[in-house]
Specification:
Blueprint lengths: L8 E8 L7 H19 L6 E9 L1 H12 L7 E5 L16 E9 H10 L4 H16 L7 H17 L12
Length: about 170
Amino acid sequence: MSREDAGTALAVDISVEAEAWGEEAALRPLVERTLTTAADVGRFDLPAHVEVSLLLTDDARIQVLNRVWRGKDMPTNVLSFPAGPEAAKDGLPDDARPLLLGDIVLARETVVREAAAEGKTLEAHVCHLLVHGFLHLLGYDHEIDDAAEEMESLETEILAALGIADPYAEVST
């Protein structure tokens, strides 16, 4: 995927590790639309060329990653691994050197379970988690008190641009 407006090209590399996610080609339009909208609505000061990697996996694999990288021996819905500025690819001219923002990992079983429990479509929940992971790649951290509200507000704004309801709104019964 690439986006040329505002002088930024955004590329995404999708790897499907768990067959339950389906084919990469079927998922690509949703992923591209979500990440492009996140970059556009967020009005981030991104370099000319950026790249994001997405791994679509299962609970078993994400549990290992969560244990190794976060010390939490349990599956989770999304993990993000920011790459940092040193991730620029060598051997390319400066104006064509993509900056790898990092990796986002989604776990199929947890994402499906959460969407059903929260009465959301799977597509809407996946979009929310992609936006959430993308913001982590850009340095947002909801585990810091002052930053949590800002991150949630930005997620809500991006999701609204995608036509998705506020995931943090109170549900009335």
